[in-house]
Amino acid sequence: MDCIFCEIIKGNIPSTKVYEDDFVTAFNDLNPQMPVHVLIVPKKHIASANDIEENDAELIGKVFLAAKKIAASMGLENGYRIINNCGEDAGQTVKHLHFHLLGGKTMGDKII
Ligand code: AMP
Ligand code: ZN
Questions:
Q1: C-beta separation of 39 from 27 below 8 A
Q2: Mean pLDDT by 10 residues, the chain (112 residues)
Q3: Which of 7, 27, 85, 90 is most buried per CB count within 10 Å?
Q4: Ligand 1: which residues within 6 Å by Cβ?
Q5: Number of H-type helices and E-type strands within the chain
Q6: Would you call 36 helix, strand, or coil by DSSP?
Q7: Residue 108 lies in a domain
Q8: What pLDDT, on the 0 to 100 scale, is given for residue 70?
Q9: Which ligand 1 atom is nearest residue 98's CA?
Q10: Could you tell me the residue range of the domain that residue 20 belongs to?
Q11: What is the CATH number of the domain that holds 66?
Q12: What's the number of domains the chain is made of?
């Protein structure tokens, strides 16, 4: 299987890891859109949010618990945004479920 994020998780492609546990890894986005732009990725290959299954529910909870720890470790006490792009219309480019953790300055524009 040809998946960049699986290769990053295995350590075959370099990344700047900021967090890792048994279920989740997180690394800096190659093309940051904010002072802090981390990708939080479950180690299990799930193609998109639309491919999450019932037995992944606990894993997805672990992603958000990791997000909270990463945000604290990166000094985002003032808040942050978590974004998931799911599928073609949302512009998902990497087909391994990931959540963008963004912060480090006040975010003006909101879609919702
Ligand atoms: P999305 O468009 O939501 O699928 O987000 C994919 C993100 O992965 C983009 O923000 C890219 O900049 C980022 N990205 C792609 N390849 C790498 C990589 N090798 N290391 C870190 N980030 C990457
Ligand atoms: Zn993958």
A1: yes
A2: 95 98 98 97 98 98 98 97 98 98 92 80
A3: 27
A4: 4, 13, 15, 27, 29-31, 39, 85, 91-94
A5: 2, 5
A6: strand
A7: no
A8: 98
A9: 3
A10: 4-103
A11: 3.30.428.10
A12: 1
